[in-house]
Task: inverse folding
C-alpha cells in the first residue's frame, strides 16, 4: 500500500520533468535563438509528438514551405534533440554539392549501413582509403552508375525488367493479395496500391536478383512491403517494441539475401550484373559473414524498390480521377502500342514522341515527392554567408523548392499536368531536384521513368479500369498524400487511403 502511493508522485515528477525538458528544448530555447526566422516550426516538433517521434521532423520537412516562408539563408533547427542546419535556397544547395569534403555525404551512408545492421568493422572496411584517393564505397557508387546509367548494363537489365512487367501485368496474375472481390470470370475489384506494388516490386526483384531469390524466400515481396510501410522509422532508431512488424520483416529480408548469396553462383546466374559486382567488392574486402552480406544487399534492394511503385500508383490514380486527361494521354501513347508487329510496347516512341506524357510524369513527381538531401559538417564551412559548425547535420528538404511559384508558375499547390509542357525552362531549373543531387544523385532515374511508362502503357491498353462506386455516404476522391512521415522520396497515401478499381480485360 505504502509502495503504491509512493510511486505516483515519482511518476508525476518524471512526467513533469519530461514535459518541461521538451518545452525548453524544442520550444522555448529555439525561440530565444536569434537564427530562427519564425517560431512555428519549433512548435511542430513539440506538439507533433502524438504520431511518434519521427513524425515531428516529417511535419517540419513536408510543411516546410508553409512555415519557412521566405527564409532563404541557412538556419538552424533542433530536430530530435540534434542541432541541424536547414538549407532551402537552390544557390546554397549547389554550394553544398560542391563541398564534397567539408560537407560529408559518406557519414549518412555510414548511418544507413549501420541501420541495416552492418558492423562498424565492415563499415570501416568499406570507407578505408588505404592510401588511395577513393575507398570501396566510392567504387560501389560507380558500380550503381555503371548498372543504372544509359549503356549496355542498363539495356540488359531494362529488357528483363520491362519483360517482367509485361508478364506480371496480366489478367491471370491479378490475384491475392490485390483482389478484393471477383464478379464472375470477367471482372475483379482490386486495390490499386497493392496492384502497382506487387507488379513493380516483383518485376524488379526478379530483374535484379533472378529467380533464385524466390527459391530461398518465396515471400520476399510480401516481406518487402511489411518492411517498406514503416521503413521511415528505421533511421529514427525506433525501439523494437514500437515497430516490431517492420523489424521482423527486415530480419527476414536480410536473411533471404544472405541465403541467396550462399547459393552456388551457377544457381543464380540470372541475377543482374550489379549483384555479382557488389559480391566481388565484399569478397575483396574479406566480408564473408552471411549476417553482413545479407543486410548489405538488402539495403540496395530497398533503395531500388521503394519509390517507383508509389509513383506508378499516383500516376494511375490521377489519370483515373481525370477522364479528359486520361483520354489525352492515351491517345498520345497509342502509336507506341500498335507500331510493332509483335504488339510489344515501343518504349522509344513513349520516350521521344510523347511530350504530354513527359510533362504529366514530371508533374506527378513534383506533387508526390518529398526527397531530402543530407550531409554532415566535417569541417567548418561557410554556406550562404553562414558559418556551419562541424558535427552538425545539414538537411536540404527539396520539396519546398518544388512549390516555389517564382519558378513553377502560379497555382503551384494544384496539379497541372501541362505545367512542364508549357514551361520547358523548369526542367533545367536549379530548383528542380526530384532525384536529389551532387554525389548522391539518384542513378535509378532513367530506369524509374521506363518502369512507369511501361506500366502505364500496359495498364491503360490491356484493361478496362473504372473507379469502384463509393460506399453510401462517401464521395469518390483521390486519397491524400501522407505528409506526416519523413519518406525521403515518393509519399504514400494517408493510412487506409487507396484507389479501388473494377477491372475487366480489354480483349474479352
Ligand atoms: C521515382 C523513383 C525514384 C525516386 C524519386 C528516387 C529518389 C532518390 C533520391 C532522392 C536519392 C538520394 C539522393 C540524395 O541523397 O541526394 C536516391 C538515391 C538512389 N537511388 Fe533513387 N529514386 C527513384 C528510383 C530509383 C530506382 C528505380 C533505382 C534503381 C533501380 C534507384 C536507385 C538509387 C540508388 C542506388 C541510390 C543511391 C545512390 C548512391 O548512393 O550512389 N532509385 N534516389
Result:
Amino acid at each position: 500500500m505504502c509502495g503504491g502511493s509512493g510511486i505516483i508522485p515519482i511518476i508525476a515528477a518524471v512526467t513533469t520533468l519530461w514535459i518541461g525538458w521538451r518545452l525548453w528544448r524544442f520550444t522555448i530555447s529555439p525561440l530565444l535563438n536569434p537564427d530562427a526566422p519564425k517560431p512555428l516550426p519549433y512548435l511542430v516538433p513539440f506538439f507533433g509528438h502524438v504520431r511518434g517521434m519521427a513524425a515531428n521532423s516529417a511535419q517540419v520537412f513536408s510543411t516546410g514551405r508553409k512555415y519557412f516562408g521566405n527564409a532563404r539563408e541557412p538556419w538552424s533547427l533542433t530536430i530530435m534533440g540534434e542541432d541541424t542546419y536547414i538549407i532551402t535556397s537552390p544557390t546554397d544547395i549547389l554550394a553544398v554539392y560542391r563541398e564534397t569534403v567539408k560537407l560529408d555525404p559518406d557519414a549518412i551512408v555510414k548511418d544507413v549501413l549501420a541501420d541495416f545492421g552492418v558492423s562498424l568493422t565492415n563499415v570501416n572496411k568499406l570507407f578505408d582509403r588505404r592510401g588511395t584517393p577513393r575507398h570501396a564505397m566510392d567504387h560501389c557508387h560507380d558500380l550503381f552508375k555503371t548498372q543504372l546509367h544509359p549503356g549496355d548494363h542498363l539495356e540488359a537489365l531494362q529488357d528483363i525488367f520491362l519483360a517482367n512487367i509485361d508478364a506480371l501485368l496480366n489478367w491471370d496474375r491479378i490475384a491475392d493479395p490485390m483482389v478484393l472481390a471477383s464478379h464472375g470470370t470477367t471482372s475483379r475489384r482490386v486495390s490499386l496500391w497493392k496492384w502497382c506494388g506487387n507488379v513493380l516490386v516483383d518485376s524488379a526483384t526478379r530483374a535484379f536478383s533472378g529467380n533464385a531469390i524466390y527459391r530461398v524466400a518465396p515471400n520476399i515481396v510480401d516481406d518487402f512491403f511489411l518492411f517498406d510501410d514503416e521503413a521511415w522509422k528505421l533511421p529514427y532508431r525506433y525501439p523494437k517494441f514500437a515497430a516490431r512488424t517492420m523489424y521482423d520483416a527486415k530480419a527476414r529480408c536480410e536473411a533471404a539475401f544472405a541465403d541467396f548469396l550462399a547459393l552456388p553462383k551457377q544457381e543464380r546466374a540470372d541475377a543482374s550484373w550489379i549483384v555479382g559486382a557488389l559480391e566481388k567488392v565484399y569478397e575483396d574486402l574479406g566480408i564473408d559473414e552471411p549476417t553482413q552480406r545479407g543486410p548489405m544487399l538488402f539495403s540496395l534492394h530497398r533503395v531500388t524498390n521503394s519509390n517507383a511503385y508509389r509513383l506508378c500508383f499516383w500516376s494511375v490514380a490521377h489519370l483515373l480521377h481525370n477522364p479528359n486527361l486520361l483520354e489525352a494521354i492515351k491517345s498520345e501513347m497509342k502509336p507506341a502500342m500498335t507500331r510493332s508487329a509483335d504488339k510489344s510496347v515501343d518504349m522509344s516512341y513513349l520516350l521521344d514522341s510523347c511530350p504530354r506524357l513527359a510533362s504529366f510524369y514530371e508533374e506527378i513527381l513534383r506533387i508526390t515527392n518529398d526527397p531530402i538531401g543530407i550531409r554532415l559538417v566535417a569541417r567548418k564551412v561557410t554556406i550562404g554567408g553562414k558559418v556551419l559548425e562541424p558535427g552538425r547535420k545539414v538537411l536540404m528538404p527539396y520539396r519546398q523548392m518544388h512549390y516555389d511559384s517564382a519558378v513553377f508558375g502560379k497555382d503551384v499547390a494544384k496539379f497541372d499536368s501541362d505545367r512542364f509542357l508549357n514551361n520547358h525552362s523548369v526542367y533545367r531549373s536549379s530548383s528542380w531536384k526530384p532525384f536529389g543531387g551532387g554525389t548522391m544523385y539518384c542513378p535509378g532515374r532513367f530506369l524509374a521513368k521506363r518502369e512507369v511508362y511501361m506500366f502505364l502503357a500496359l495498364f491503360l491498353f490491356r484493361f478496362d479500369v473504372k473507379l469502384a462506386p463509393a460506399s453510401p455516404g462517401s464521395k469518390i476522391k483521390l486519397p491524400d498524400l501522407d505528409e506526416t512521415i519523413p519518406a525521403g522520396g515518393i509519399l504514400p497515401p494517408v493510412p487506409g487511403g487507396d484507389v479501388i478499381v473494377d477491372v475487366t480485360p480489354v480483349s474479352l
In short: DSSP finds 23 helices and eleven strands in the chain.
